[in-house]
Input
Amino acid sequence: MKISKSKRIEEAVFKVLMWVAMGIVFAFVFSVIWTIFSRGVKAMSWDMITKLPGGGFYIGKEGGFLNAIVGSLYIVGASTLIGLLVSIPVVFYLNVYRKKGSRLAYVARLAFDVLFGMPSIVYGAFGFTIMVYFGLRASLLGGIIVITLLIIPIFIRSMDEASRNFPRDILDASYALGATRWETLRVVVRQIAPGIATATLLSIGRAIGDAASVMFTAGYTDSIPTSLSQPAATLPLAVFFQLSSPIPEVQDRAYAAALVLTIIVLILSIGGRFITNRFSKNKL
Amino acid sequence: MAIEVQNLNVHIKGIHILKNLNLTIPEKQITCVIGPSGCGKSTLLRTLNRLIDSTEGVRLEGKVLVDGTDIIGSGPEITELRRKIGLVSQRPCPLPMSIFDNVAYGCRINKMYKRHRDLENAVQENLRAVGLWDEVRGRVRTPAARLSIGQQQRLCLARSLAVEPQYILADEATSALDPISSKTVEDLFVSLKKDYTIIMVTHTLRQALRIADNVVFMYLGEVIEAGPAQEVFNSPQQELTQKYLSGVFS
Output
């Protein structure tokens, strides 16, 4: 088939543009990973992930940032669990109990969109105000509450997206067999399980990586918290504080912390994919 | 008489959809509901098992007696009613689970069997009843979504039969199927009428001709003519029915 010259030039230009754009994105991703790895690996050692900071850790002496790893896992684990418990009923209510075109559902979705777009420092400031009001100090509990608030809109919006494409015929099919709405919900869960998994991954990713919201609410400490009222260290803040140091060895440790953060997120993503694939085999 | 509809009126968001319907649907026969699109056939079916309740802004008036009990108003437990009245929809809609679980689903929620062995037998029996057992026997644990459309429709029928209903509502149950599957499902309905009262909405007049014992012709939300199939098809009393049957409009 013959194509006119101008069309061919047009196509060539666009091809080049696409290649360039792809190249920029790839270069960007690789340079991020390379930077974190090359600088992080230098400081990385078994001690880093198994020991608490010793005296003088922040001027380059021995120790590790186990406190931040455990603190992050505590906060993210608890807030993901609470977030799920709160969000799933909301999503079901919006999609199964409310009829289509409900005003309340519309307003609720709008509200969640607004919350979704709110910067995390605003959540941090809000949490801080509340804590001051109740006379609470920076603590594990404060961190968990603020991170929960931060990820609930993410949970709800992404699960809501997944359930809105949900074939309503399934509801009818289940009702027609004499199922109650509660029993029908369990069928809905099976259908949107991949959506829930994706939402959970997105939320964990945001929760584990956020520094601004936990800075004033969870605080920072060199030990592992043993109760909800004690402050907790987090990985993003471990990166932040060590990176602000003028000492190169300490800066490298910041990259090691970033590396750990990246690896945790990577493991979760790959694990999540795997689970999602297993769950979605029955999906329509 | 199995189902008796008396002065049934259905309004949806202020629009009068079904207008003063009066019908008797005889037991253990196939009653076909025919009529042009938008005449209220599906609304009628959805009223019979009260699936219409999930439509927004719906108002029901009149009486629908199923085995002598009025199902409009407070009536019986709605899940009980729906269990008694099976539904096969236009597009097959398997639940997102395995073939086995699809059939077992209704039995489980209605707690019909105590022993797993009994449940397995029931599933097998119902899959046999729709002629699906031999096709899927080795893979009942695989996702139902992988079956062909025709198989899925028979699976949906097996799923309905598994909760031991007395009535089967079929809403254009063959319209999404290829001719061969369509024929299989149609034959199934004929063989099922000795045990079940079947009410079938259909768009294909020829199908109604082939299998109907009774015919209800609806037009713009009203029942124009109803009676034994022979009478309605051979000597329709109303002009509208004559026109519809001769294909003046469809």
Notes: Chain A has two domains: 5-43, 57-282. The mean pLDDT of chain A is 88.
